[in-house]
Write a structure and sequence with these properties.
There is one protein chain. The protein has helices at 52-69, 74-90, 92-103, 107-130, 163-176, 191-203, 217-225, 239-251, 274-283, 305-317, 337-352, 384-387, 403-410, 426-435, 468-474; strands spanning 8-10, 13-15, 19-21, 24-26, 31-36, 39-48, 135-139, 142-150, 154-157, 181-184, 210-212, 232-236, 256-259, 264-268, 295-301, 356-359, 374-377, 394-400, 415-416, 418-422, 440-443, 458-459, 462-463, 476-484. The protein has a seven-stranded mixed β-sheet with strand order 16-17-18-15-14-20-21, sandwiched between helices. Strands 11-10-9-12-13-23 form a six-stranded mixed β-sheet, with helices on both faces. The mean pLDDT is 96. The longest helix is centred in the N-terminal third of the chain and has 24 residues, at 107-130. It is of the alpha/beta class and 489 residues long.
């Protein structure tokens, strides 16, 4: 491995394809290709492919960086976090352009919502920790205080959907708590994370406080999560990979948090605003359905199914597929040919198993990565398309005749990340909202997020919580300091 200032030009934007370790760009002997889902013939970069040696170098750098970063005062750390947030805001257009090419999310959405959220994550945690008050109380003649200590180097492994925002969502609390970070972005969409390293450098972080390593999960990812020097691991991805990482974390007794996908229900009661519910249901096709929080299982009260379906079909027909850089586009491409083949496999197996393909079920164009919005009515609740996460523009529809039946259907999978309920009855909203076993349940809304609220899943949707105090507590070692009253002056 050597240091290198070589960069590539992606749509007129300069991006480093190399690791960022101890404040320097580091190359690897091997690389992997990154191509654009918008045009699979468009190669964006050859990206350095890390290995065990790269992981060792990054963890060693993070240990040294931690010594400096953790010893800065909280106001000093916050000043740097605020600078980073400002740099992200100032460069949001470039980040959005890179991410659009890298993973095909709609450019307008990236510019207006997703990338600004990345800046907000750093600003929020800097402000949040600055306002934090130590818990203090008297008990049995003693004064008790709960003190947060930074934990050490944290490994953060992020997915390919909304990669910049989801990376900042995990990195921000780790840095705010005083930890150093090694970020391993997904190999299918690593380029926006590389830009984050540029802004980290410009903001004035100490060398090694933040590091990025690129490569395949089974290679460098494995090396990172099995390193006994790592003190925290935060992962977003599949349950299968989460189980493997969890075993490694357990062996080293390292706290581990994981967000592992979802199979959310969107429940529509007869007393709901059917038009609003149908419009929101059709919106679940956006971003090619590559959203873990999406309400992919439509559960509609039988008496309003016909009305719902008419309006749902109307809003679905209004979608426009095409280049994500076009403001008129609402349906983006799938991230990768391998992923689209996986989605196609689900639909084909459902068709062969006797499930009804109500509409869709094929690509818009052969050889391209756009898949038509697809609705499936399963023959059974045990259908694979009901029980497993597809992560594509594929929804299912089932009906119910009572509130308990709706709740039972909503809770009938192993997942529990999110749920959506449409009703005009306040008491029903409370009952069903509580009864749906999911980390976040929205009533008559969707994707409204308060960054102080806990985020995570029930069941195989994850372990632990992110957001607010929950993230800061995870990234800290908590100490109780107990002093006998009157014994010190």
């Amino acid at each position: 491995m050597n240091s290198s200032d070589a960069r590539v030009c992606v749509d007129g934007i300069s991006v480093s394809p190399h690791h960022f370790i101890a404040g320097q760009r580091i190359t690897s002997e091997h690389s992997f290709e990154v191509r654009s889902p918008l045009d699979w013939n468009m190669k964006l970069a050859d990206v350095s492919r890390g290995d065990e040696q790269t992981a060792d170098l990054a963890v060693s750098a993070a240990i040294e960086g931690y010594k400096v970063w953790s010893n800065l005062s909280q106001p000093e750390r916050n000043d740097i976090l605020f600078k980073l947030s400002d740099l992200i805001d100032a460069n949001a257009g470039e980040i959005a352009a890179i991410e659009c090419l890298d993973m095909a999310m709609l450019l307008e959405s990236l510019k207006l919502r997703v990338i600004p959220r990345g800046a907000l994550n750093f600003r929020h945690y800097a402000e949040f920790i600055a306002d934090h008050q130590e818990r203090k109380w008297s008990s049995k003649g003693t004064i008790n205080r709960v003190i947060r200590h930074s934990a050490g180097p944290a490994v953060v492994i992020t997915p390919w959907n909304a990669p910049f925002m989801l990376a900042t969502w995990k990195v921000a609390p780790a840095l705010a708590a005083g930890n150093s970070v090694i970020l391993k972005p997904a190999e299918w969409a690593p380029l926006s994370a590389s830009l984050l390293a540029d802004f980290i450098n410009e903001a004035g972080f100490p060398e090694g406080a933040f590091n990025i390593v690129q490569g395949l999960g089974q290679e460098i990812g494995t090396a990172l999560v099995t390193d006994s020097r790592v003190r925290r691991i935060s992962f977003t991805g599949s349950p299968e990979t989460g189980r493997i990482i969890g075993v490694s974390a357990a062996k080293n007794l390292v706290p581990f948090t994981a967000e592992l996908g979802g199979k959310g229900a969107l429940i529509v009661f007869a007393d709901a605003d059917i038009n609003a519910a149908a419009k929101k249901a059709a919106a679940q096709f956006e971003d090619s359905g590559q959203v873990c929080l999406a309400g992919t299982r439509l559960l509609v009260e039988s008496s309003v199914k016909s009305e719902f379906m008419e309006q749902f079909a109307h809003y679905t027909d209004q979608h426009v597929y095409g280049d994500s850089r076009n403001p008129e586009t609402t349906l983006s491409a799938a991230i990768h040919p391998i992923h689209l083949e996986r989605v196609e496999g689900f639909v084909e197996r459902a068709r062969n198993a006797g499930d009804t393909i109500v509409f869709g079920g094929e690509r818009f164009e052969p050889g391209k990565l756009w898949y038509k919005p697809t609705l499936i009515e399963p023959a059974s609740n045990d259908s694979e398309v009901i029980q497993k996460e597809i992560f594509g523009p594929v929804l299912t529809i089932q009906t119910f005749d009572s509130e308990p039946e709706a709740v039972d259907l909503a809770n009938s999978t192993a997942y529990g990340l999110s749920g959506i309920v449409y009703t005009s009855d306040a008491r029903r909203a409370e009952r069903v909202g509580r009864a749906v076993r999911a980390g976040t349940v929205w009533v008559n809304s969707f994707l409204v997020r308060d960054l102080t609220a806990p985020f995570g899943g029930f069941g195989i949707s994850g372990i632990g919580r992110e957001g607010g105090d929950y993230a800061l507590d995870f990234h800290s070692d908590l100490q109780t300091l107990q002093i006998l009253e009157g014994s010190v002056h």
